[in-house]
Amino acid sequence: MGLLLGGGLTDTLGWRWVFFINVPIGILVLLGSRTLVSAGRHAGSLDVRGAVLGTSGMVALVYAITRFGEEGFADPLGLGLVAAAALLLAAFIALQSRSSTPLVPLGLFRDRGRAGAYASMLLLAIGPMGSFYVITLYLQQVQHYGPLRTGASWLPFAAGLVLGAGAAPKLLLKMATRLIAAAGALLSAGAAFWFSFIQVNTNYWLHLAPAMFILALGFGLGIIALTQAAVYHTKETEAGIASALLNSAQQIGVALGLAVLAGVAATVSNSSQHSAVTEAGQLVAGYGSALAVAAGLLVAAGILAAATLPSRTAAQANAPAAAGIH
């Protein structure tokens, strides 16, 4: 629904409405939470300093990557932002290690499988979301799709995501978590690599639609498997933060990935070796290179998942708990 509504809003009311529509939704959520969410008190205080340091560090890093893509790796502002990001994130880690109520409990990263799930999710998120961004630009700037048609063209992605996320729980009862996560990442890698061969006149039904479906199918399998790995062997009181950290890894991966892929696309499109081709040809060259990078990052996600995640199936992981229920 979001794909069609977003395209429809942009087509009829303008792109700013895509952001404005979230305001009434947010207000409804706030009002509903007062009556639907039970009140509870938890010991500890909000880690404001940690939130400021962590957020500032990530913003500086993402902006630095964006600057490098636009101005090159010798850009003074970009280098300064990298240094600032390193200092801010180092201060964040130091603060979390000393805090009695940390925003991010560093002890959660001591488990190899959980840390691997976070790292794999960071890489996994880059591929599908980065491909979504690049192919959307391709459809609009090269094939001249309108917003509504662009949104509708991504419906195979939605279908693949539903199928992958729906099939994963059943597969996890029979197959190891690491196998499902790795297979999902590699499926998405294959789709991103397929995307990288786009041309100015690439056929949507023969080339793009199948790749969209496979990209999302792999992503759906991967995120469910990684979610199980992230909460495996956590205390009941830590399950929420363990799951939230996985979501944070996904969001960070999307932000970093978009910055990296946009930088790759801009660098290749503006390179001298493509100066003699048409503007559309320059754009396609940049998009194809960015998609190839996305495929490589997804392969890395698959390898990392296979090497670090638990080998147990969901049924085996839940067996000890089930044995205690009579």
Description of the molecule:
The protein starts with a helix and ends with a helix. The protein has 13 helices and no strands. The longest helix has 31 residues. The protein folds into two domains: 221 residues, Growth Hormone, Chain: A (Up-down Bundle), CATH 1.20.1250.20; 55 residues. The relative contact order is 0.14. 77% of the residues lie in helices and 0% in strands. The chain is mainly α and 326 residues long.
What topology does this entry show?
Elements: H1 2-12, H2 17-20, H3 22-36, H4 48-71, H5 76-98, H6 112-141, H7 147-153, H8 155-172, H9 177-195, H10 204-231, H11 239-269, H12 279-308, H13 314-323
Brief overview:
The chain has 326 residues and is mainly alpha-helical.
What are the key terms here?
mainly alpha, 326 residues, Growth Hormone, Chain: A, 2 domains, disordered C terminus
Low-confidence stretches: 320-326
State the CATH topology of the largest domain.
Growth Hormone, Chain: A
Q: Which superfamily, in CATH terms, is the homologous superfamily of the largest domain?
A: MFS general substrate transporter like domains
CATH class designation of the largest domain? Mainly Alpha
Spell the H/E element sequence: HHHHHHHHHHHHH
Radius of gyration: 21 Å
